[in-house]
Amino acid sequence: MLKKKSSTLFTILRHTTPSVPKKHSPLTFSSHSNNPFLHTSSPPPPFSPKGHSFHNPTWFYSFGYLTLDGRRLCSKSAEIVKERSSRCWNCHESTAAAAPFLVCDSCRCIQPVDDSIDYFEIFGLEKKYDIEGGVNLEGKYKDWQKKLHPDLVHSKSQKERDFAAEQSARVIDAYRTLSKPLSRAIYMMKLDGLEVDEEQTISDPELLAEIMEIREAVEEATESESLKQILSRMEENLRSWSNTFATAFQSRNFEEAKDSIRRMTYYSRVIDEVVKKL
């Protein structure tokens, strides 16, 4: 009986084992390179659960390790964290849902940061990629910063002032993340339990040719008008791939979504370089 069960488990693992993708060209992008466009490095690790949905309770077998869908494993603990952090640390009363991490309604003590609250919840936004139409994100950000301003908490205890500083830092990070298409795309993937390697090799010949072309154009540009033309072109490319990401993410095509993010990374870095040179 034991031998039969072991054989069955081996068969399941064998049929659920993903194939190892081929290595790509060693050309990749890196923010740590002296050259903002090109960098040569070793290719990424050969294994990724390509083609497998992270929303299904699928087992993956890789290099002798078994890995479960992390979101399923963490869902219960996340609920526990949420329940625990919904009570005031000082008076132990339940905090209001309308102000999930600011102050206790009962004793008015400033609360610690609740990491189970995502960036969209902080600003009262629907959890979706396209937030750029009619959403006053900057206004919501300023409102939070006013509430967390040091002048308003200077009479509080040191513990509460520390909580306020941590909350303020998280609001800043949330605003910076959601205000840009690239960082917002990466964050959306993260919320779905998917990590994105922005430095992974891109082997598209057309893109590689474009990299060389734009690199030379930026280096040779001496007039602001030429740089502005490059900037306009890169912003248009960024918008195009941002739309591609939105479509891919909506249809749960995560491989295409990841590829869109890597291309958005390149165009974003070019935009940053052009802005610095203007």
UniProtKB/TrEMBL annotation:
Pfam families: HSCB_C. GO terms for biological process: [2Fe-2S] cluster assembly; protein complex oligomerization. The keyword Chaperone applies. Its main location: cytoplasm. PROSITE patterns: DNAJ_2. One of its GO terms (cellular component) is mitochondrion. Keywords: Chaperone, Cytoplasm, Mitochondrion. InterPro entries: DnaJ_domain, HscB, HscB_C_sf, HscB_oligo_C, J_dom_sf. Residues 118-191 form the J domain. SUPFAM superfamilies: Chaperone J-domain, HSC20 (HSCB), C-terminal oligomerisation domain. It is found in: Cytoplasm; Mitochondrion. GO terms for molecular function: ATPase activator activity; protein-folding chaperone binding. The keyword Nucleotidyltransferase does not apply. CDD domains: DnaJ (cd06257). Belongs to the HscB family. This is Iron-sulfur cluster co-chaperone protein HscB homolog. It comes from Arachis duranensis (Wild peanut). The gene is LOC107476041.
